[in-house]
Amino acid sequence: MAKNQTIISFFFSWVLFTVLCGPQPLRAAEPYPAKPINFVVPIEAGSDGDIVSRPLAEKASAILGKPIVIVNKPGGGSSIGYREVYGSKPDGYRIGMATITIVTNKVQGLMPLDHHDFTLLGTFYRMYANIYGSTKTKHPFKTIQEVILYAKDHPGEIKLAASGIGASLWIGAMAFIVGTGIDINVIPQPGAAGFAMAQLAGGHMDLAVTHMAAGKPQMDGGNVTFLAVVGEERDPAYPNVPTLKDLGYNVSWESCGVLIGPPKMPAEVKEKLIQAFEKAANDPEYKKFLTDRFATPFYLAPDKVIPYLDGKRKLVRDIMTKAGIIKE
User: Fold this and answer.
1) Which of the four CATH numbers 3.30.465.10, 1.10.287.130, 3.40.190.10, 3.30.9.10 does domain 128-247 have?
2) Beta bridge partners of 131
3) Is the peptide bond before 217 cis (omega within 30 degrees of 0)?
4) By the 8 A CB rule, do 114 and 328 touch?
5) What phi and psi, each to the nearest 5 degrees, are found at residue 273?
6) What CATH number does the domain located at 37-127+255-323 have?
7) How many C-beta atoms surround the C-beta of residue 87 within 10 A?
């Protein structure tokens, strides 16, 4: 009898163990997103691209229902941030933004990746390069036509401040020079727009190529003159300032913001992100924020991003080939 009770007790213990600890029914995967999303910004906090990315991420976060956390990863011409996004697990929990350096870096030899190597989720802004003249040098140019005529008669005499070699504003300066066929002494600065504008406002340079966010305070102070837009359209606030295309030169350049993810993202995750960021980028409040920051709202769907950036890549290759710095 004792033996039978032992067997029965063991049987019920085994059944209880199997019920509690045995194979459980498979749970359905939690719908994406189930946790916060990291958003890599490959430039320093407080820069133009960082400032316009933060409210976009906030609006997309509200749409997706999960926090989107900004992670700044500056350095290496943005290549550090790009590499981090590229090497991330393609589950949608680490995405990021790119500027036009996602095109220029490969051509310049800073990294072996470009826009073709990422999952593209759309664009959200662009900033045109502008040409400004100093009011404090011996060449206080009033118009861009004066600049072009003087440069043709005095090659190499005009000094122009731009950002570092290969950076977006340097490309804008070189596009202006190559497109108009003039000879100007381009002097790269250690930083971006603010550095070039400080040199110009102080009368140390004759010209500078920067964005409006850096140019307007010095314009308001009477230190610089807005001469031309190196872009597709005039600034609505300054309708009398021409684009180079208005003057017959086939020259256009701008930086832009591109939303990127690692390669091979699942289609359903990719689609949720695309929908959320498209809605955020086209939100009227966000578009007003951009225009207040002297940026232009600019949404392109993913299928249109590659041909757009391929066009920029062709110009970059031409300019860097002429400058002797192409390393692709």
Assistant:
1) 3.40.190.10
2) 209, 228
3) no
4) no
5) -65, -45
6) 3.40.190.150
7) 10
> What digits encode the pLDDT tens for the residues 293-313?
999 999 999 999 999 999 999
- Give me the residue label for tokens 């051509």: 107
Taking the C-alpha atoms of residue 313 and residue 298, their distance in angstroms, rounded to an integer, is 19
Q: What is the dihedral of CA 41, 43, 48, 52, to 10 degrees?
A: 0
24-40 per-position pLDDT tens digit? 444 456 899 999 999 99
Let me know: does 178 contact 322? Beta carbons within 8 Å: yes
Q: Is 170 exposed, middle or buried (0-12, 13-18, 19+ CB in 10 A)?
A: buried
User: Where are any strands of DSSP class E within the chain?
Assistant: 37-41, 68-72, 94-98, 119-134, 159-162, 185-188, 207-210, 224-230, 254-261, 296-297
CB contact at 8 A, 52 and 257: yes
